[in-house]
Amino acid sequence: MINKNSHWNDNNKCHYNAPFLLKPVGKDYLWGGRRLNDDFAKNIDLQPLAETWECSTHKDGMSVVSSGEFIGKTLKEVLEIHPEYVGSHPKTRGDIPILVKFIDAKQDLSVQVHPDDQYAFKYEKGQLGKSEMWYVLDAEKDAKIVYGLHQDVNREHFQQMLERGQAEKYLLKVPVKDNDVFFIEAGTIHAIGAGLLIAEIQEKSNLTYRLYDYNRIDKSGKKRELHISKGLDVANLKAIAEPTQPMRVLQYEPGCAKELLCRCQYFQVERLLLNTERNRNMVTYYSNSLSFKILLCINGCGSIFWGDNKALSFFKGDCIFVPAESEKLKIHGKAQFLSISC
User: How many CB atoms lie within 10 A of CB 127?
Assistant: First the structure.
């Protein structure tokens, strides 16, 4: 195992299309807690620390390369130098069209909704909309999410209820447990509840229309802005059935098991369970020409090897970018990952 303080074995410079670590950007939204520093050793000097944007080229928070020959550059800068790293998938268009986060909800997040691509392009200066997926890393007892409405409601009445602070009775609240998966399509009214630690994979967008925020006061002493009119333009106000967990089938191979968590038009997410402690053959991993891959380590630690004695160590909470058509990688350790691609 490589020294944790170094992460990178730099016998030579980074090989072409070799993986590299990303350093996240932190966000101090008022509902956050301490777990991203405590559980994942992010060492970000924010209180609270609500989100870390682990893989992002969004202007509101760009990931920075923290290993290899591009260390210190933003991921966006690297992709401008090597546009081939994103792959040839039509969705990439020379950039990373998704954003990967950790979220620590010490308090309830606002009740909110995101626009779809068409609305965002037309009314938000060509931006992307936002569909997203949540993978629940840890859920306190009785933790819940808001997932749509449990009965139909018309716009005028629901707007009145929002303005009076009485809309909660229409919200569908769903109990949550560790290892749950939820896909939140654009237009779905939703909220992450208190006591949840979540990995979020989403379109590359920071468009959020807040509908209700419990009359909370931010650090400047003001209520946070609501976006009721725009939110109701895009919100699905029809009743939604309580979501059920998708069928998940573990596929085993020596040293590794994997399962598909989500596949949609924007991204694909698999969970990988690595355990090569008693396996002499390391697990092979690489990306194809269509898409980069992102490895988000959600538990454990280990090392990635490639080329002529090149190695990269990873630990719980690390995010690794694997360029399209990467070198064949060998992974050793005991860990769990989310493997993300377009």
Answer: 18
